[in-house]
# Entry
Amino acid sequence: MNGLSTLVRAIDALNEHIGRVVSWFALIMVLMQFTVVLLRYVFGLGFIPMQESILFMHSLLFLVGAGYTLLHDGHVRVDIFYGSATRERKALVNFVGVFIFLLPLCTVMTWKGLIFVGQSVRVWEGSPEGTFMPFWLLKSMLLAFPLLLTLQGFSMAVKSYFIMRGLEAPDEPVPSDGGTAV
# Structure
């Protein structure tokens, strides 16, 4: 079980690191969008690569940051029963949810994404605006999304299994808000 705990901690650390890096895109996007609006409406200038970079950052923020969000239990869920459930019941819900919902969804997204991204890569799809932006690279993030979610789902399932069996779960990361892990 020690190797499994090490793997879970590595997956959590990977998504934690990626999430912290891409979270900066939110601030950069706001500043970039402000600059685009300022250039367009005050100075009458348009800069398409800058606008497309906002699209890239927005996509990366959500696609690559999804594993981080799952790590910190930030995805939307209906808390009617889950919110007041015991730790063991929550672990059961998470464990079943990973195998019934998350993994099948990630499998379908990977399968469809391989087709979609493959077509884009084959033609080295670029920006429809004719800029230097490699849209094939942006679309390839559609494969990073299910990969990172699958990894984090595996981590969640292992931790849930440990809790359901009454074992000590692998160390959970300290939440980014500075609070205590639940």
